[in-house]
Amino acid sequence: MAVVAIKSFGGIAPKIPPRYLKDNQAQTALNCPVFAGSIQPILDMGTSHLTLEKAGTIKTIYRYGQDNISDTQHWFHWPAEVNVCRSQIAGDTSEWTFFTGDGTPKATHSGIALAGTNYPAASRPLGLPSPTSAASAVVAGAVDDTETVETRVYTYTVVNKEAGRTIESAPAPASTSVDVRTTQTVTMGTFATLPGSGYILTHRRIYRSTSGVFLLVAEIPISQSSYSDDVDPDDLAEEIPSLYWAEPPAALQGLINLPNGIMAGFVGRDLYFCEPYRPHAWPENYIQTVDYPIVGLGRMDTTLAVLTTGNPYFVQGSHPTNMAVVKSDLEQACVSKESIVSFGGGVIYAAPDGLMLLSPGGSKIITDQYFSFKQWQAYFKPETIHSYQQDNQYIAFFNNDTTQGGFIFDITSRQFILHDMYATAGFQDLQRDKLFLTFADKTVKVWQEGAAKSYIWRSKKFTMPHDMSFACAQLEAEAYPMTMKFYGDGTLVHTQTVQSRDPFRLPAKRARDWEVQVEGSIEVFSIAMAHSMSELANA
Question: Is domain 3-42+454-537 given the CATH code 2.60.120 in the classification?
Answer without folding.
Answer: yes
